Amino acid sequence: MQDDTNILAELNDRSREVFRRVVEGYLDSGDPVGSRTLTRTMNEKVSAATIRNVMQDLEFLGLLGSPHVSAGRVPTQLGLRLFVDGLLEVRDLDETDRQKIDETAGSNSQDVGGLLDRVSTALSGVTQGASLVLAPKHEAPIKHVDFVSLGNDRALVVLVFSDGHVENRLFTPPVGQTPSAMREAANFLNALAEGRTLSELQAVIRQEISQRRQEIDSLARELVESGLAVWENEGERGERLIVRGRSNLLSEEASEADLEVIRSLFDDLERKRDIAEFLQLAEQGEGVRIFIGSENKLFSLSGSSLVVSPYMNADRKIVGAVGVIGPTRLNYGRIVPIVNYTAQLVGKLISDRS
């Protein structure tokens, strides 16, 4: 079997035309396409026997298949893939389709979820298929954070944003973290959260960690230089300051007080590192919502196709995607421009709202 990407390039003009007409005929009717049908539509006059031979060659290459005993052929999954990538003639977007999609942008509401729900419904109606819209994670300032343990290896972060939006994200907590540690993390974050986004909260925590580390360094320097203490795993997550012969060597109250402060700072540093890890996991959590535009079971069917296009925010960063799900016999030439246009529109609308 040849490399898939070279198969189309190595077909001669007749084979390529037979292949294209079989696929287009199948996409149009859903029925196998036979050699007699093709003899009436080919650009050059060829016999049905010649076309049957070409079809057999295309079948040998894995591009066509015979679903029944009949002489008709249908494209295989590989054939459809190569047709869409190499031979598909994408039409211009139909003006009626464009108007129906544009109507979703009519509201001035800042509710992105409502916008995407309308887009999903419009896509489904225009294409007569199931539409899929992946929504971006919310980046508004946070009003409240809550962590909920769902078991040893699963936790939920509930984010309430200042604009009233609520989002739940699943994540895997660090090993050994208890529900009480999660509550403590939430309490600490809520004291800082007002008016800050998740990424801004992370920056604040990183600054706090850096500040604690500098305070510990400053207090411990004299102890280390005098040989009373030594660093273990310095700079790493599990670092410790080990005091040598403490009961004999540290008799002055000042030294005891210094050690108590260092111990307290270490505890604080450890807590903030845990909180920083919680925040990072919350930001990476599975929070992308899926809007499905029509109820069907296409997701569970093998042989379904998805035409999907990403959309970007104002920073040209991909934040979601829109698509249409349907049988492999989709009208790709019509669906592709609809999906591409919708993705561009959604990107623009989300950028405008932010």
Automatic annotation (TrEMBL):
Coiled coil: none annotated. Keywords: Repressor, Stress response, Transcription, Transcription regulation. GO terms for molecular function: DNA binding. Residues 115-336 form the Heat-inducible transcription repressor HrcA C-terminal domain. It comes from the Bacteria. Pfam families: HrcA. The keyword Hydrolase does not apply. GO terms for biological process: negative regulation of DNA-templated transcription. HAMAP family: HrcA. Negative regulator of class I heat shock genes (grpE-dnaK-dnaJ and groELS operons). Prevents heat-shock induction of these operons. Belongs to the HrcA family. This is Heat-inducible transcription repressor HrcA. It comes from Lutimaribacter saemankumensis. The gene is hrcA.
